Write the C-alpha cells for this entry.
Amino acid sequence: ANAVWYIVIYGGSAAILLASNDYRLTLPVAFWFAAYALLLWYFVPRIRMRSREVSTVRSKLTGRAVDCYANITTIKLYARDEDENDAIRETINEHTLSYQQHLRLTTLVGFSIAVLNALLMVSTGAIALTLWKSGQIAVGAIAMALPLTWQLSNIAGWVAQHATALFENMGAVEDGILSITSP
C-alpha cells in the first residue's frame, strides 16, 4: 500500500509541476498511469496464480522425494527403483515447466514496464523539445520534465517488483494454507 501511495503522490505531483509549464507535458504521464494500471491489473493476478501452481508442484515434488527416501527399504526390497525414478523425474519435469512459465510471466512484466517507461521518457522528451523549439516553454521546463519522468519510471519498476513479490508470496501462502487446513 505504501508503494502505491508513493507512486500516486509522486506521479500526481509530477503531473502538477509539468502542467504548470504546459498541459501537454502531462499527456505522456496520464497515458503512462493508465497503461501502468492496466499492466498491473492484468499481470498481478496471473503471477499470483502461477506462484500458487509452482508452490503446489514444489510441494508435490518434496512429498515424492520424502516418500521415496522414507520407504527406500521397501522400494529396494521389491525392486521398484525404476518406477520411483520415473515418478520423481515426471514431477521434476512438471516443476520445471511450471517454474519456467512463472519466470516467463515475470520477465514479460518487467519487459512491459521497461517498454512503457521508455515510451514515457521518449514521449515526454519529444513533447518538451517540440514545445521548447516553438518557444512555448523555457529550457528549464525540459530540465524539470525529464528528471521527473525518469524518477517516475524508477519508482514504477520498484513498485512493480514489490507488487510481484507480494503476490508471488501470497500464492505460496495460499497453497500452504490449503495444505494446513485440509482434513
User: Anything to note?
Assistant: The two ends are 34 Å apart (CA to CA).
